[in-house]
């Protein structure tokens, strides 16, 4: 039987990809950020997940303004790194797990989540930066990936409540997959940041840390934070944090925190990550 | 089932107008800026970037974009483009075509120079105090 054994929430700032690709990860600017991920990189080596369900958002790479799926699941065999205007990141192709992905997609649809299915797409920094942060620069990624793309760009984006419920349904779907698989779920994006308008550059250390506290908690208050609160408190792009709730919802009521790190700044953004294990 | 009542869409959208210095990318903005964003998206292809760089005006004339928006694109007036329905993830294709780092392009939308903006970020970023609500002033 497949099982979700852990969840990771993590920022996916594109500049971190640049730092890895250009070998700058030990300099004064990036050093403290990468040091914060050291424990998690070692932990990933030890726990050896077979598959990661990677929740992220496409940044106008695979999807243009034409088609805007709220929740889309990648059911393909492999995905290439997208050209975001600077040429594709020099990272390995991402291998999918089509059997598990299709199983999850079908199960979710039967649970009233009307998923969009994707067979072919390129994946941008939203997906490849977290892989680099957790696994460094291998010749081949050590896991298969089920990409789960969420619209957090065009409003209304899905509510935190809906994201949490989707995570719960994903956990049930994984547990009904017959093959023995060690599955992790990652929620990516955030933390506080605003990339547009005169208010650009807004960061909120206090709110971000309150959000991390809520993720560790046994209650599910975090799912009811309204969009307007993310927008006011964490900047217009801080809304990406709703994607962490898909991860958290998949872990059950109680969790144990294994690692947590927070740093300001990386480019325009507050960087955070948290590693959680189900503890029910 | 959902544990909370469905939010009224009019009230939901009205609150977005109360955030200082921010244009939330609503459906209305997405409709208005559709071709600005699709134009920007086209710059992901190297051959389109070349054609655009060779003659920006001629390339823009191939798109169903208003004169006002074409002028804003030529001037790289990103705040104006946000008002006209541009979205930063799409407009970032223009940043990279210009060879401009993302954060530097973002700084042009503020009242700071790029070095000032970069220093603000190193010092912990823009504070939320006074930047959350126009009406409330908190």
UniProtKB/TrEMBL annotation, chain A:
Q: Which residues form the Extradiol ring-cleavage dioxygenase class III enzyme subunit B domain?
A: 9-271
- Provide the leader sequence positions: none
Q: Which InterPro entries match?
A: Xdiol_dOase_suB
Q: What name appears for this protein in its UniProt entry?
A: Protocatechuate 3,4-dioxygenase
Automatic annotation (TrEMBL), chain B:
Q: What is its EC number?
A: 1.13.11.8
Record keywords, A-Z = Oxidoreductase
Group of enzyme by EC: oxidoreductase
- Segments forming a coiled coil: none
From the UniProt annotation, give the residues forming the signal peptide.
none
Q: Which residues form the Extradiol ring-cleavage dioxygenase LigAB LigA subunit domain?
A: 36-121
Q: Does the keyword Oxidoreductase belong to this entry? A: yes
InterPro entries named among the record's database cross-references: LigA_sf (IPR036622), PCA_LigA (IPR014159), Xdiol_dOase_LigA (IPR011986)
| A Pfam family per the record | LigA
Query: What name does UniProt use for this protein?
Result: Protocatechuate 4,5-dioxygenase subunit alpha
Q: Which organism is it from?
A: Novosphingobium jiangmenense
């Amino acid at each position: 039987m497949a099982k979700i054994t852990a969840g990771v929430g993590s920022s996916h700032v594109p500049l971190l990809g640049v730092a890895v690709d250009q070998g700058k990860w030990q300099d004064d600017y990036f050093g403290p950020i990468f040091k914060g991920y050291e424990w998690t990189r070692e932990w990933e080596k030890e726990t050896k997940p077979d598959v990661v369900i990677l929740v992220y958002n496409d940044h106008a790479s695979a999807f243009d303004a034409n088609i805007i799926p709220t929740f889309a699941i990648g059911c393909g065999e492999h995905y290439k790194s997208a050209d975001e205007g600077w040429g594709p990141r020099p990272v390995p192709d991402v291998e999918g797990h089509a059997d598990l992905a299709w199983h999850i997609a079908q199960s979710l649809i039967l649970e009233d989540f009307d998923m969009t299915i994707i067979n072919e797409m390129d994946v941008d920094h939203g997906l490849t930066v977290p892989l680099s942060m957790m696994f460094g620069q291998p010749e081949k990624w050590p896991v298969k990936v089920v990409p789960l793309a969420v619209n957090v760009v065009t409003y209304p984006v899905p509510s935190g409540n809906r994201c949490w419920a989707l995570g719960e349904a994903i956990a049930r779907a994984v547990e009904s997959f017959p093959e023995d698989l060690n599955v992790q779920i990652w929620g990516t994006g955030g933390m506080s940041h605003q990339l547009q308008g005169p208010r650009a550059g807004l960061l909120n250390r206090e709110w971000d840390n309150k959000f991390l506290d809520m993720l560790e908690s046994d209650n599910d208050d975090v799912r009811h934070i309204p969009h307007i609160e993310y927008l006011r408190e964490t900047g217009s792009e801080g809304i990406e944090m709703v994607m962490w709730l898909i991860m958290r919802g998949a872990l059950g009521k109680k969790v144990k925190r294994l690692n947590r790190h927070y740093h300001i700044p990386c480019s325009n953004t507050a960087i955070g990550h948290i590693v959680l294990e189900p503890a029910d | 089932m959902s544990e909370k009542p469905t939010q009224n869409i009019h009230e939901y959208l009205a609150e977005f107008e109360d955030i200082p210095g921010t244009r939330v990318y609503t459906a209305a903005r997405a409709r208005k800026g559709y071709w600005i964003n699709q134009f920007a998206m086209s710059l992901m292809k190297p051959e389109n970037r070349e054609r655009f760089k060779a003659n920006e005006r001629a390339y823009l004339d191939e798109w169903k974009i208003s004169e006002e928006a074409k002028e804003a694109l030529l001037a790289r007036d990103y705040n104006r483009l946000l008002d006209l329905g541009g979205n930063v993830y799409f407009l970032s294709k223009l940043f990279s075509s210009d060879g401009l780092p993302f954060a530097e392009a973002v700084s042009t939308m503020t009242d700071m120079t790029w070095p000032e903006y970069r220093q603000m970020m190193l010092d912990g970023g823009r504070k939320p105090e006074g930047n959350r609500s126009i009406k409330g002033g908190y």
